[in-house]
Amino acid sequence: MSLFRNIVFVSALVGLLTGLALTGMQYASTVPLILKAETFESAEPPKPHEHAATPAHDHGVGAAQAHSHEHDEEGWAPADGFERSAFTALANIVTAIGFAILLVTASEFAGGLKGWRQGVFWGLAGFVVFTLAPGLGLPPELPAMPAAELNIRQAWWLGTALATGIGLALLVFKKSLFFAILGVVLIVAPHIIGAPKPDSFETAIPEALHHDFVVAAVIMSLIFWALLGGLAGYFRARFAPVAA
What we know:
Shape: flat
Oligomer: single chain
Structural class: mainly alpha
Mean pLDDT: 85
Radius of gyration: 19 Å
Number of strands: 1
Helix content: 55-70%
């Protein structure tokens, strides 16, 4: 029971700090690009198209990276300004706490995090699993960009993250050739199957704007995961020393 409380405490503290840092990074990098893209969206005639962000970032940072630009004309949405910023920060903190729980819990099966350096490596693994691998097929999207059905994208993203995570674990923690080959197969399989694609790729968003957004989102996610892992390792060693 003590271990469970330690995991929750460390994850909550790490999630709070990392979520606030993510919010600051968003407003310095991706939010201005999203607002610029929304001008192209508002200039287009209404379309029966759902332009939800790529499920990861839904993806882990998933939802945190691009979901702030989703609009549902028939549903409630926070007002621009402080309200939208507050809800963005809250969503980022909740997301970061969830990822911190996953990271700290997974690391316990390998003996627990022994310091911030080890935590950074675990964080980089999280970046590969939740951002890099799914992003190869489903890069972050801006408003007004075409996309396949949301539930199909979510299923592919979840399958890719799961397969990548298991594949990496087999490569790192299993020493046999069989498990190494199986790990590589699991990592590659989702990309052989292929991510779901929209019926058309026509969009009013300039290619350069989308490129800048993808680069900013990926770099922000890398910093997020490195910070998340580093803080998790630091506080795990401080408040819940690994048993000898």
